[in-house]
């Protein structure tokens, strides 16, 4: 309003043809002030968003601002298969950190990733900077050799041939065991629904296949009897999933009567109070063996002492006791007595019994299960 | 605004909308917060203050800032060229730059790995030089740039297409250079588009999962973004931890879009 009046005044011309210079100047100034005031208003309006954004940015960048960070810490990069994640993070890493700090005064940080054994193997083939890896079966380690990530099966030079710990394959049944399942043989009965991980993608499934087949021979049966049991179990497979964990979810959501899985997983669920089912211990079953792999090509020379100390620590009594606490069976048989929840398996075996994975995979998984059992059940045809 | 098309004060349509969205959108969102809050507020803070959760959130935010900055400039440039220049292959290029929306993000990750990874097409030559973009923060940024590229473009290009060429021509006739025209004529008109493009890019980068999981190596305290952290915690069965971080992401996105709405509304009010 005022501006309009002033505008009128400004455009007024004096009788002598001159404009009012003072007023003119005033209007100009006033205008300028108005526009700057407008800018201030604008700024005030933008203040909250800009504050928020810069606050967010400051928060994000904080640890990287020089001076806010402590001295550089040494790190170990570890990849592991999924079910050991919690145990490593909560118990094994802290125990090693304490020991290393007591010995050298240095603080060590663990950079770790946990996923399916096959997945982390593929990641290592593609070049992730893993220094140490823990795989759920030796087959994956052998793949690393094939891909040139490892020059040779170097894990066999480690303590216990690279085997860190074990866990048997057991049968999980519905509460109260309504089907009266006592052993693998009962899974071949008509009317029993078995939920099974897919051997094409799951490491756990490969262990399960060996258990279903070889347990018969361990109990004095023939090859034909072993074949009949494997075939019988697979005749009853009602659902399959890609991983041991996924198939677990299927079972929990109501599929089937029985699930063949790791003892450790079931025990850890029981301790968390979320187990809905019962463990059935077979007379004879396989112990899965988890393999430690050291990737020399990813270890810088100045890292070697630390990585070697950590790998040695993995087989120390402290570490092996932790595995037992978390439901894995130690490679040191004497320590396993410490966990009263471990069931008794009269005739256990390992993959060594079958000539190692190098033979078990082509002979049993490929030669018998894939080439004979699947076609016999009309499920063949997959390449 | 046409005075006849004023919003009517009705209850029924909004109510219907909310009822429809309840199972689709609102309840799942609510579930995040319910599960995050299971352990109570102190528990929530304790979960969030763990070093790997803190790292994941910070790393995600930084990547999102980086993606927004680079794609903000690159996307605007692409939109400008595609909108204002006529050249052979423009139509094709226009389609290609929008493809990242349609390609599964896992495929994006794989293709980046096969290109830049240590055994990839280019990576195998870079690896001996000690340059390894994959499984490092640089790889995560590359993946996010790829995946979020179309958002900036999509926000800016329609505005540029609509912009009357007469303004530009007028600017040229009074002797403005191409840059000056861009700076003083086009850029001010683009402000809304730029702003929403930046926020969309930022928000999308914050939630990116598929490509990141392939190229990052998923290392905690080094390359694990917040969505990867959430997934890892779910896998390990730590549902509360996963949901606590998910709640922070959801809240951040909410604030971002609130800002977007606030600023665009103010502009409209001033314009009318």
How are the SSEs ordered, and which strands pair?
The complex is a heterodimer of chains A (383) and B (272).
Chain A: H1 2-11, H2 21-61, E1 74-81, H3 85-104, E2 108-115, H4 117-126, E3 132-135, H5 138-146, E4 163-173, E5 194-197, H6 203-218, H7 223-235, E6 237-241, H8 244-252, E7 258-262, H9 263-271, E8 278-280, E9 287-294, H10 304-314, H11 317-325, E10 329-330, H12 357-376
Parallel strand pairs in A: 1-2, 1-3, 5-6, 5-7
Antiparallel strand pairs in A: 3-9, 4-7, 4-8, 4-9, 4-10
Chain B: H1 12-36, H2 40-48, H3 51-84, H4 90-98, H5 105-116, H6 123-126, H7 137-162, H8 165-173, H9 178-207, H10 210-215, H11 226-235, H12 239-271
Helix pairs in contact in B: 1-12, 3-7, 3-9, 3-11, 5-7, 7-9, 8-9, 9-12, 11-12
Provide an overview of this structure.
The complex is a heterodimer of chains A (383) and B (272). By secondary structure, chain A is an alpha/beta fold. Chain A has two domains: 74-164 and 290-325, Periplasmic binding protein-like II (D-Maltodextrin-Binding Protein, domain 2), CATH 3.40.190; 168-287 and 347-376, 3-Layer(aba) Sandwich (D-Maltodextrin-Binding Protein, domain 2). Chain A has helices at 2-11, 21-61, 85-104, 117-126, 138-146, 203-218, 223-235, 244-252, 263-271, 304-314, 317-325, 357-376; strands at residues 74-81, 108-115, 132-135, 163-173, 194-197, 237-241, 258-262, 278-280, 287-294, 329-330. In chain A, strands 1, 2, 3, 4, 5, 6, 7, 8, 9 and 10 form a ten-stranded mixed sheet that branches. The longest helix of chain A is centred in the first third of the chain and has 41 residues, at 21-61. Chain A is globular and about 110 Å long. The model of chain A has no long low-confidence stretch (mean pLDDT 86). The radius of gyration of chain B is 22 Å and the shape is globular. Chain B has a single domain (39-271), classed as MetI-like (MetI-like fold, Orthogonal Bundle). Chain B is built from twelve helices and no strands. Chain B is mainly α and 272 residues long. The A-B interface holds A 45-46, 49, 52, 56-57, 59-63, 77, 82, 85-86, 109, 111-115, 123, 125-129, 245, 272 and B 55, 57-59, 61-62, 65, 113, 117-119, 123, 127, 132, 134-135, 217-222, 224, 232, 235-237, 252, 255, 259, 262-263, 266.
């Amino acid at each position: 309003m005022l501006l309009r009046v002033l505008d009128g005044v400004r455009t007024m011309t004096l009788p002598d043809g001159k404009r009012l210079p003072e007023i003119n100047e005033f209007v100009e100034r006033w205008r300028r002030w108005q526009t700057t005031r407008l800018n201030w208003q604008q700024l005030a309006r933008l203040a909250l968003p800009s504050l928020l954004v810069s606050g967010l940015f400051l928060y994000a960048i904080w640890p990287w601002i020089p001076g806010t960070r402590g001295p550089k810490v040494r790190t170990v990069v570890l990849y592991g298969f999924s079910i050991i994640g919690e145990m490593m993070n909560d118990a094994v890493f802290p125990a090693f950190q304490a020991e290393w700090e007591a010995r050298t005064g240095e603080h060590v940080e663990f950079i770790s990733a946990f996923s399916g054994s096959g997945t982390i193997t593929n990641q290592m083939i593609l070049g992730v900077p893993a220094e140490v890896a823990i795989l759920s079966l030796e087959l994956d380690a052998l793949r690393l050799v094939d891909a040139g990530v490892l020059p040779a099966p170097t894990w066999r030079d480690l303590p216990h041939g690279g085997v860190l710990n074990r866990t048997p394959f057991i049968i999980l049944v519905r509460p109260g065991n309504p089907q009266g399942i006592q052993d693998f043989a009962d899974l071949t009965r008509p009317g029993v629904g078995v939920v099974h991980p897919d051997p094409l993608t799951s490491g756990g499934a490969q262990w399960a296949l060996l258990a279903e087949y070889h347990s018969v021979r361990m109990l004095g049966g023939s090859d034909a009897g072993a074949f009949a049991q494997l075939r019988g179990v697979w005749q009853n497979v009602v659902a399959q999933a890609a991983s041991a964990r996924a198939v677990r979810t299927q079972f929990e959501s109501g599929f089937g009567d029985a699930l063949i899985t790791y003892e450790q997983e079931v025990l850890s669920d029981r301790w968390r109070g979320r187990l809905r089912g019962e463990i059935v211990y077979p007379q004879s079953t396989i112990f899965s063996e988890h393999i430690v792999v050291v990737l020399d090509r990813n270890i810088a020379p100045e890292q070697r002492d630390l990585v070697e100390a950590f790998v040695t620590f993995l087989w120390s009594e402290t570490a092996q006791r932790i595995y037992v606490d978390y439901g894995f069976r130690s490679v040191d048989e004497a320590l396993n007595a410490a966990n009263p929840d471990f069931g008794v398996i009269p005739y256990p075996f390992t993959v060594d019994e079958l000539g190692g994975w190098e033979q078990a995979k082509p002979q049993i998984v490929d030669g018998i299960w894939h080439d004979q059992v699947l076609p016999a059940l009309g499920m063949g045809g997959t390449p | 605004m046409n005075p006849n098309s004023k919003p009517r004060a009705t209850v029924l349509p909004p109510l219907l909308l909310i009822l429809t969205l309840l199972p689709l959108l609102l309840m799942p969102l609510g579930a995040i917060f319910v599960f995050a809050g299971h352990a109570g507020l102190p528990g929530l803070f304790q979960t969030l203050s763990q070093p790997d959760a803190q790292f994941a959130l910070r790393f995600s935010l930084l990547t999102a800032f980086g993606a927004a900055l680079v794609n903000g400039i690159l996307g605007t440039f692409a939109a400008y060229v595609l909108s204002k220049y006529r050249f052979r292959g423009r139509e094709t290029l226009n389609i290609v730059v929008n493809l990242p929306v349609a390609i599964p993000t896992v495929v994006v990750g794989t293709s980046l790995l096969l290109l830049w990874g240590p055994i990839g097409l280019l990576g195998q030559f870079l690896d001996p030089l000690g340059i390894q973009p994959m499984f490092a923060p640089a790889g995560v940024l590359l993946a996010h740039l790829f995946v979020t590229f179309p958002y900036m473009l999509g926000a800016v290009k329609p505005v540029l297409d609509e912009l009357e060429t007469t303004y530009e021509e007028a600017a040229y006739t009074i002797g403005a250079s191409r840059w000056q025209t861009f700076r003083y004529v086009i850029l001010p008109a683009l402000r809304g588009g730029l702003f929403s493009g930046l926020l969309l890019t930022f928000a999308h980068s914050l939630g990116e999962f598929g490509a990141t999981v392939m190229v990052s190596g998923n290392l905690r305290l080094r390359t694990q973004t917040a969505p990867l952290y959430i997934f890892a915690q779910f896998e390990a069965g730590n549902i509360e931890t996963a949901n606590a971080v998910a709640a922070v992401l959801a809240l951040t996105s909410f604030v971002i879009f609130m800002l977007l709405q606030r600023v665009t509304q103010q502009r409209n009010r001033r314009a009318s």
